[in-house]
Amino acid sequence: MAKQSAPQELAQIAPKLVGISNDVLFGDVWERPGLSPRDRSLVTVSVLAALYRSEQLPYHLGKALEHGLSVEELSEAITHLAFYAGWPNAMTAVTQLKKIADEHSA
Fold first, then answer.
1. In angstroms, how far is CA 52 from the centroid of its own chain?
2. Which residues have a Cβ under 8 Å from the Cβ of 81 and sit 6 or more positions away?
3. How is residue 35 annotated by DSSP?
4. Which residues, at least 6 apart from 36, have a Cβ–Cβ distance to it below 8 Å?
5. Helix (H, G, I), strand (E, B) or coil at 80
6. Which residues have C-beta within 8 Å of that of residue 31, sequence separation ≥ 6?
7. Backbone angles phi, psi at 14, to 5 degrees
8. In angstroms, rounded to a whole number, what is the distance separating the alpha carbons of residues 78 and 44?
9. Are 99 and 71 spatial neighbours (Cβ–Cβ below 8 Å)?
10. How far is CA 11 from the centre of its chain?
C-alpha cells in the first residue's frame, strides 16, 4: 500500500504546507500505533463528512476502501452520522461514496 501524501502539484504554490502534510500528518500522525490505518480512515471520513469537507472526502473514501473498510461499513457510518451531523452532509457523503465505490469496482 502506497504511503499517503499531499498532492505534489500544490507544492509549487504552498511547498511548506505540502511538506508539513507529508512529514507530520502522513509521516507521523497516520503512522502512530494507537489506531490502525482502517480505524484512522473511519475517523477521518466521519469527520470530513460531518464537517462537510467535500473536497477532501473522495480521496479519503478511496483510502478507507484501500485500508480495508467496506462500502457497506462506510455507508453505515454515514447513515449513523446523518442524525448527528445533518442530513445534507450525509447525502453528500453517500453520493461521493457511490462514485468512489463505482470507480473501485470498475
1. 12
2. 46, 49, 50, 89, 90, 93
3. S
4. 67
5. helix
6. none
7. -140, 65
8. 12
9. no
10. 20
Rounded to two decimals, the pTM is: 0.89
Q: How far is CA 84 from the centre of its chain?
A: 19
Cell (9 digits) for 55: 473536497
What is the spatial distance between Cα 89 and Cα 52, in angstroms, rounded to a whole number?
6
Q: How far is CA 47 from the centre of its chain?
A: 9
CB neighbours (10 Å) of residue 46?
A: 20
Residue identified by cell 505534489 is 8
- State pLDDT tens for residues 10-39: 888 999 999 999 999 999 999 999 999 999
* Cell (9 digits) for 82: 446523518
Residues listed for the chain = 106
Pick from 37, 44, 57: nearest CA to 97: 57
Question: Distance between CA 58 and CA 47 in Å, rounded?
Answer: 13
What would the pLDDT profile of 55-66 be if each residue is shown by its tens digit? Answer: 999 999 999 999
